[in-house]
Design brief:
This protein is of the alpha+beta class. It has 16 helices and 14 strands. It has two domains: 186 residues, no CATH class; 256 residues, no CATH class. α1 packs across α2, α2 runs antiparallel to α12 and α2 packs across α14. It starts with a helix and ends with a helix.
């Protein structure tokens, strides 16, 4: 019996017992569809996490900041610790060739010395997540993109001009949300007060948001706006942007470094204490493979400029990347367990139905053996019938998985759209075919070992 004829007989057997075959394939369908659907959800989650990681500078970003406390053997030198200064920046630019970009930064996170960092305009106010005085290179290091206007330049910094670049979250709070107002709002050229001091907005970053937030925003544009009832009020952030990293970036305000020093850190500034020290040094390396040597090189230079006092610490995104890998690995294990259970149940169903089919076809097997069918031919015939059941169930499972992904995304929306990959479909289909082969081995062996004389006597 050739292979094509065996497949044809397999389909005829399925067609002859349609309802029974459909119930048998149900386990395979569930196994394949759940494997593909969960793979799509995991892939979407992975894309979202890696997009968020890239949004804060990626693995190539190194952040140097002041240490919370000195090493125990240096604590008696605490009053001599110089902190991060521009001298460190100059030394690193001259003596740390592994660093591609170096940008000093003075950051005020909401509160400092009992004072709040507040942007205000015409009775409206907002507290930024990050208010930083920095250099123009911060645009590249922190993965910001200017959508309207421009970034401040070296001349703005040298002359300590009162200019700022804001995120769309700041724009939404002070000037209005374009999605709620129904028209684009570009505040470039407008004036805002930062802790009472006037600043001109010269640029605005693009809106940072997850795929899910972007789809929801586009959907709202197509729907008629409902009139708000009751007193006018702010409805809050509405989880704008999705992942907190995007919301954080949208609530950012940058000003030139010298402007920060003059207006907020000098004796004539608005802060209660003058302080010319830097908050952080943000650096970028050309390749993640250079991370360890770049960290060591940076530490060596800073230990020299700080006269051996280790009053600084490093921060990278390695822990976050490891956490992403751990979460993805755990999700894949859970996906595999659920799919394996479904496929095992489907395989048991196929084995049972094939054993029942053999019991019904004992005389048929006896007749075939009597007219010359070999043991191998009978074995292959039953095995191929089992494989056909699994393959048809696998194909049906692939079709069902598309609808299942849409249903899951609708019921439990995530920050990123599930992504069905060709690889996951091929793996799921291969597992379904393998399940059919394994499930058909015992029934095929049992049928091939039937004695033709006893089979012909079977009633």
């Amino acid at each position: 019996m050739d292979f094509t004829n065996a497949i044809t007989l397999g389909f005829k057997e399925i067609w002859a017992h349609k309802f029974r075959s459909a119930l048998t394939m149900l386990g395979i369908i569930l196994g394949v569809s759940s494997l593909v659907a969960m793979s799509a959800l995991v892939k979407g989650m992975e894309n979202g996490m890696r997009e968020a990681l890239a949004a804060i500078g990626g693995l190539e970003k190194i952040r140097v900041q002041g240490a919370d406390e000195l090493p125990i053997w240096q604590r008696h030198l605490a009053d001599q610790a110089p902190g991060l200064t521009m001298h460190d920046v100059r030394a690193l630019r001259e003596s740390a060739p592994l660093l591609r970009k170096i940008t000093p930064s003075i950051e005020l996170f909401g509160y400092r010395d009992g004072e709040r960092t507040i942007l205000s305009r015409q009775g409206k106010s907002v507290r930024p997540f990050t208010f930083a005085g920095t250099w123009p290179d911060a645009l590249e290091i922190n993965e910001h993109i200017i959508e309207h206007g421009r970034m401040f330049n070296e001349i703005d910094d040298a002359e300590a001009r009162s200019v700022c670049v804001i995120g769309t979250g700041i724009r939404d709070e002070l000037f209005g949300d374009p999605d709620e107002i129904g028209r684009e709002i570009i505040p470039v050229g407008e004036t805002v007060n930062i802790n009472g001091q006037p600043f001109t907005i010269i640029g605005m970053f693009q809106r940072y948001e997850s795929e899910q937030a972007r789809r929801e925003r586009e959907l709202l544009k197509t729907q008629p706006r409902m009139e708000e009832t009751g007193p006018k009020r702010s409805r809050g952030w509405r989880n704008k942007g999705g992942h907190y990293v995007f919301r954080m970036k949208n609530m950012t305000v940058y000003i030139p470094l010298n402007t920060m020093l003059l207006k907020f850190r000098a004796a004539t500034g608005t802060n209660s204490l003058p302080d010319a020290r830097l908050t952080t040094l943000n650096m970028k390396i050309p390749d993640i493979e250079l991370l360890d040597p770049a960290l060591q090189q940076t530490r060596n230079v800073l230990m020299m400029t700080h006269k051996g006092i280790e009053d600084f610490s490093f921060m990278t995104q390695e822990d976050w990347a490891d956490e992403i890998s751990t979460q993805i690995r755990n999700a894949r294990v859970n996906r595999g367990v659920i799919a394996a259970i479904c496929l095992i149940v489907g395989g048991i169903g196929i084995m049972n139905i094939m054993l029942a089919s053999i019991s019904e076809r004992v005389r048929e097997v006896g007749i075939r053996k009597a007219v010359g069918a070999t043991t191998g031919a009978i074995f292959m015939q039953i095995l191929i019938e089992s494989l056909v059941l699994a393959v048809v169930g696998g194909l049906a499972g692939l079709a069902v998985s598309y609808g299942l992904v849409q249903v899951i995304a609708l019921i439990t929306p995530t920050d990123n759209e599930p992504v069905i990959t060709v690889t996951s479909m091929m793996v799921a289909f291969a597992f379904s075919a393998g399940t059919g082969i394994v499930a058909g081995l015992w029934p095929a062996f049992k049928a091939s070992r039937l004695d033709p004389i006893q089979a012909l006597r079977y009633e």
